[in-house]
Amino acid sequence: MSIEQNIPPAALADWFQTPAGRYVLDWEMRQFDNAVDDVFGYYGVQVGLPGIDCLRENRIPLRVSAGPEPGCHVRAEPWSLPFASQSVDLVVLPHVLEFSARPHAILREAERVLMPEGSIVISGFNPLSLWGMKRLLWGRRDQLPWSGRFIGLLRLRDWLHLLGFELNGGRFGCYAPPFASSRWMERSGFMEKAGDRWWPIAGGVYVVRAVKRVVGMRVVKPTWRGAAAQALEIG
Hints:
By secondary structure, this protein is α/β, with parallel strands linked by helices. The chain contains eight helices and six strands; from the N terminus they run H-H-E-E-E-H-E-H-H-E-H-H-E-H.
């Protein structure tokens, strides 16, 4: 599997059906539900993975998926979305950046289409974790998810900051090792609570939310925040 994919390859959806994939997806969907629940407006866009509805708990009236994959409502490249500038209230990027050769261009495009004070929600694999360690030492780069370029939160935060975004929520999760067996994944369930308490920034994946700030506009603080979110926020 080439790391030059422009969006998560269709095979990533299949990987989510494996024991490790279901473990990740179940956790991430709970985070997406919390992250998008209180985002309002008229237009929401999910880029990639059209078969997984990351906007299911959002109440924006017009929610679409965009990308070159079959099943997307709008067929387009993620760095060239056919939406007017400052016309979208919410953009969701589920594992899009790490499977693209142009992650910066995708973020710039998201910034372009988002309204001032619009929200972006991003999920990614954490390189500073047991998952990142396996990718570095034993992960086959021709297999998912090890074929992706894992992006650390500090780097992602810097990219977002340069585009005028401000992190306002998020969590790390999936602290168990990426076992191939569902039995071993279940046995490692205790590591979630332990990880949240003792090494909260070492989860295998993260979901973060950021707001597009515009100088001179009134800032309304969001409610999606908890102890783990506060521990994750930086700066």
